[in-house]
């Protein structure tokens, strides 16, 4: 019992994930949303050189600077860049359903402040204030940028199947640290369980060959020739498909 009443916490729906990390009894936490399923042992993440260097591991979402209309906070004209006092650069939004971090007081308080700041993320926003972020979606990445803290973020695998000559991506997976096998897989909201046998192919870059951007259309014919076979039982690709970690430094 934390001694709090629900009326004292302004969080709702997915914003509760932030309070789970904040009030956890552990010094170091791995926070997983209900739709982020580990496919193996994840304890090694705390022992990785990247975690020891920066004190956290973040995971990227599908959407970023090159996507539209999604990827708002990574867009070059997003007001989020002015908020964190960082010039726009090519990046991805954060997938906040997987968090690996210690409970660092300064960083957590900035995250909490952004969560409570309804002019920033209210739903609906107060009159005259456009919403900048959606729920807890990107408040971790933005807080680290605001505080000029270096962080690592892993790019996702897009997973799906071929249907009528088009690749339909219905889920995505994330890598561990020492291997490129899928360590986390996300429950596709559009597929009923058991769903994993429907995920037969994967890709990292959603841009059609020759294009510099991509949209939110779930099925794309142009990507079929770029796919790699995926085995949901092994969490591996044939031939190997490489994802990667990116280091963000201010």
Give a structural overview.
This protein is of the alpha+beta class. It has helices at residues 16-22, 49-54, 80-84, 105-116, 118-121, 139-146; strands spanning 28-32, 36-38, 58-64, 67-68, 92-94, 98-102, 151-154, 157-163, 166-175, 182-186, 201-203, 214-215, 219-220, 228-231, 236-238, 245-248. The chain is built from six helices and 16 strands. The strands form four sheets. Strands 2, 8, 9, 10, 11, 13, 14 and 15 form an eight-stranded antiparallel sheet that branches. Strands 5-3-7-16 form a four-stranded mixed sheet. It has a two-stranded antiparallel sheet with strand order 1-6. A hairpin with a 2-residue loop joins strand 8 (157-163) and strand 9. Helix 4 packs across helix 6 (139-146). GO terms for molecular function: alpha-1,2-mannosyltransferase activity.
């Amino acid at each position: 019992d934390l001694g709090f009443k629900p009326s004292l916490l302004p969080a709702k729906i997915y914003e509760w994930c932030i309070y789970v990390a904040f009030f956890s009894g552990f010094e170091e936490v791995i926070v997983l949303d209900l739709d982020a399923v580990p496919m193996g042992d994840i304890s090694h993440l705390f022992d990785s050189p990247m975690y020891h260097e920066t004190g956290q591991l973040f995971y990227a979402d599908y959407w970023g600077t090159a996507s539209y209309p999604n990827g708002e906070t990574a867009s070059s004209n997003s007001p989020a860049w002015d908020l964190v006092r960082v010039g726009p650069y090519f990046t991805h939004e954060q997938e906040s359903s997987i968090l690996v971090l210690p409970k660092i007081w300064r960083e957590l308080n900035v995250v909490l402040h952004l969560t409570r700041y309804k002019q920033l993320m209210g739903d609906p926003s107060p009159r005259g204030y456009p919403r900048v972020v959606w729920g807890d979606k990107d408040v971790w990445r933005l807080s680290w940028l605001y505080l000029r803290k270096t962080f690592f973020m892993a790019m996702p695998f897009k997973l799906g199947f071929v249907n009528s000559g088009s690749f339909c991506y219905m889920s995505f997976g994330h890598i561990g640290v020492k291997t490129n096998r899928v360590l986390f897989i996300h429950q596709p909201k559009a597929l009923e369980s058991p769903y994993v046998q429907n995920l037969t192919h994967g890709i990292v870059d959603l841009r059609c060959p020759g294009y510099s951007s991509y949209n939110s259309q779930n099925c794309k014919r142009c990507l079929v020739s770029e796919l790699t076979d995926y085995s949901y039982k092994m969490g591996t690709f044939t031939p190997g498909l490489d994802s990667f970690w990116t280091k963000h430094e201010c």
